[in-house]
Amino acid sequence: MPIDYDVNVHPRWVRPDDLMEPTMQLNTYLTFDNHCREALTFYQKCLGGEIMAMMPWGESPMCDEIPPEARDLIMHGCLVVDGQMLMASDSFPGRPYDGVKGAAVTINVDTDAEAKQLYAALSEGGAVEMELQETFWASSFAAFNDRFGVPWMINCNKEVPDSA
Description:
This protein is α/β, with parallel strands linked by helices. It has 2 domains: 27-92, 2,3-Dihydroxybiphenyl 1,2-Dioxygenase, domain 1 (Roll); 99-164, 2,3-Dihydroxybiphenyl 1,2-Dioxygenase, domain 1, CATH 3.10.180.10. The protein is built from 2 helices and 8 strands; from the N terminus they run βαββββαβββ. The chain has helices at 36-47, 112-123, and strands spanning 28-32, 50-56, 74-81, 84-90, 105-108, 127-133, 138-145, 151-157. The strands form 2 sheets. The protein has a 4-stranded mixed β-sheet, with helices on one face. A 4-stranded mixed β-sheet has the order 5-8-7-6, covered by helices on one side. A hairpin with a 5-residue loop joins β7 and β8.
């Protein structure tokens, strides 16, 4: 028996202004291979905001279980930018680190100038998959991995003409 999907498809791209006031917040949590402090500091420089947490393993209740050489690594960090959180940690000491796979941190901006500035800052020292350029859906779009191996996408939607 086929599945009956009851889907209401919008006749145009969904833009952030089209969304209702959120009742839930989705946040990105990144894991690093001993570079969390450096990465969150870099992201603050690029994105602005305030680092609200940078707790090393050595200051946690688990301190006694952590090898002394790993106690300065970050158990939990949090950068708040415009009311949104980018959280991160270093991988648990002694566990293998596989990198960020199958996901990307996506930033939607209002202007091409903002897209250009963020792209230049965040992609510096990284690996570009798609240079910042116009696409059929965006006036500016780029995809890249930053210097820490984190995949990013920057998107500035095209103006959508009002429907009659």
